[in-house]
C-alpha cells in the first residue's frame, strides 16, 4: 500500500509543478489554490508512505516521478524540446527509480 501512496504523491508532485506554470506568478486564484492543495497533499502522502518505506528510497522515487512526469508534460503541453539527450536523461532517471524500487 505504501508504494501506491508514494506513486499518488508523485503524481500530485507533477500536478503542482505543472500548476505553477498556470498560476502566472500566483496571480490567478483558481490555479493557485489547486497548486497549493496539490503541494500539501503530495507532501502529506509522501510522509504517510515514509512510515514504512526507507526515507532515501521514498524521497528519490517521489522526486523522480515528479521530474519525469513534469518533463514529459512540459514537452506535450508547453512544446519544450524533446531532444535525444533529454529523453536519454529521462531514461536514466527511470532506471534509477526502478533500481531503488527493486532494492527496497
- Estimate what percentage of residues fall within beta strands: under 5%
Q: Tell me, rounded to a whole number, the average pLDDT.
A: 95
Helical coverage, percent range: over 70%
- Class inferred from helices and paired strands: mainly alpha
Number of domains: 1
Distance between the termini: 14 Å
User: Could you say which overall geometry the principal axes of the C-alpha atoms support?
Assistant: flat
Order of helices and strands: HHHH
Radius of gyration: 14 Å
Low-confidence stretches: none
Largest sheet: none
Give a brief description.
By secondary structure, this protein is mainly alpha-helical. The protein is flat and about 40 Å long. It has four helices and no strands.
Amino acid at each position: 500500500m505504501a508504494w501506491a501512496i508514494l506513486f499518488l504523491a508523485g503524481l500530485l508532485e507533477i500536478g503542482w509543478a505543472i500548476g505553477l506554470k498556470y498560476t502566472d506568478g500566483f496571480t490567478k486564484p483558481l490555479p493557485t489554490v489547486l497548486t497549493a492543495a496539490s503541494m500539501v497533499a503530495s507532501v502529506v502522502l509522501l510522509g504517510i508512505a515514509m512510515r514504512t518505506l526507507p526515507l532515501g528510497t521514498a524521497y528519490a522515487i517521489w522526486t523522480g516521478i515528479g521530474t519525469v512526469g513534469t518533463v514529459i508534460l512540459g514537452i506535450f503541453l508547453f512544446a519544450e524540446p524533446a531532444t535525444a539527450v533529454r529523453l536519454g536523461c529521462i531514461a536514466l532517471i527511470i532506471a534509477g527509480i526502478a533500481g531503488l524500487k527493486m532494492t527496497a
